[in-house]
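Annotated sample (chain length 557).
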Amino acid sequence: MNNQRSFFSFLVAGVIALLLIITAGFYWFFGKSPVNFSISSSQPGAAIFVSNVSPVMVSLLVNPESLQSLEPHGEISQLKNSLLAKTNIDFKDDIQAWLSNEITLAVTSQDIDHDPENGLQPGYLMALATDKPAKSREFVELLFSKRALAGANLEVEQYKGVKLLYDNHEIVTPTKIQNPKSKIQNSLAGAVVDDFVLFANDIKVLREAINNVQAPNLNLSSSSEYQKAIPELPKNAVAVAFFNLPTVAQWQGLELAEPTYNSQILSLVLNPQGLLAESTFLTASKIAPVSTPLSKPVGALQYIPESVGLAIAGANLSNLPNSDLAKLWQQGTATIYGSSEAAIFRWLQPLIDVQKRWNLNFSEDIFRWVIGEYALAILPNQADIKPHWVFVVEKSPQLEQGIAKLDQIAVNSGFNVSAVTLNNHKITAWTELKATSDPVDVNVEAKVRGAHTTIDNYEIFTSELGMMEKILTHQEHPLIENSNFQDSIAMIPQPNQGYVYIDWKKSQGFLERQQPLLKFVELLGKPLFDNLRSLTVSSYSTEPGTLKGGVFFQMEH
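Output written by the structure step:
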């Protein structure tokens, strides 16, 4: 009986696993000829069955059979076999013949009967597109017949002209909550409606799905938020997810704090260069981008060596605390952690350490006077666990005052600020003096903790003199001339707000030391991370009321 009752769970697990295979197994795609996916629509047709207050809807917009070319070791075939092994259903004979190019899964409500006293039971709806409705009806009849033969209590109902089949298993167990009885739903409901086969974990969910079709003002397709989000989808997306952020927060037992963005739409696009995961957040509030959009690569990158592990480039940090990105950060961190400060303490402890060690306030002491281009780079250091860093800032009227403030902060931190000459360039060095003695003499050792100088229209800051010399003498090609970097930023739409570039192989060790939880994430997506060359993150909103950005995954060929 348990095997039959868990059929819906198998279906849900299948969709989730297919999406994971797309993101973790697509690297296999790049060693082969381009694959032509049959994507019949750029948006989910099943949205008409989903409530406009549904927390989440996730859609796969290709037939699973077309993903076979992505699997290096037959993962999709193994997945289908394992999911259906205990159901007496054969994918090839019973499903493949009618399944078309969409599988949608939605959380329809936080609690099916809206009675939290008997325990929360979310509603789940799955819609599978069919291009042969008659064959798909045969499948639904076959499925429920086999479940009935296995002991399920089969019931049939006509609801608004649609034949519904369902079996209900309700287990009542004692719990420690105030109400001594709590119900656990283990049921399956199914129907064929137009070009979709519907499954739900409760008959109420299926009835509501039919109501949503017949009363269009109730379904997601009619939602103003959803209608604003759909035009933001790229062409040829293989997967799409829509999130109603206030109800997502409630579903997870949270309250949406500092709300600016009401909804989010996420998509995945495959191409021969890599995978682009694109996301758009929507709001009715007025929001401002970090800076004027950039239509060409950031010039400050010409001073960043190509051996960089992580680089951040853009323009005008002065507006960052009030920008669209800052409002998203504040909403997310306040909702999950209670405040931005608590999130920084948990995830970005190295930044707190830098601020404490140098008595710095990033917003007041640095961001305020960076109104032109900038580039920040972290470079791996084999000889020392601490990486080197480079910070490049374009000249502006505020720059001189900003430099003077940083020099004063260095003095207040106990360092000496002195001028030195390096390769005929005047360098300002922040040095830490330490006296050592022996029986004969007392020596003073100077250790450079930072340096800066002017080159052309930019001020260059480095963590030590060796890195400054490398830049002055052009010992390395600049990052902006690196072919891998050029290929990555070419996938980011222009104009944009700049980008974060991560060379995975070079920065992996540093990032794992800063955030140990990353190792767990790598384990979950091992095929992806094992073959990942770089990540490029950017924001490129163009429409009012939207924050749009993407992450491009470049793989090893």
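Annotation: The longest strand covers residues 442-455.
Annotation: The chain has 18 helices and 22 strands.
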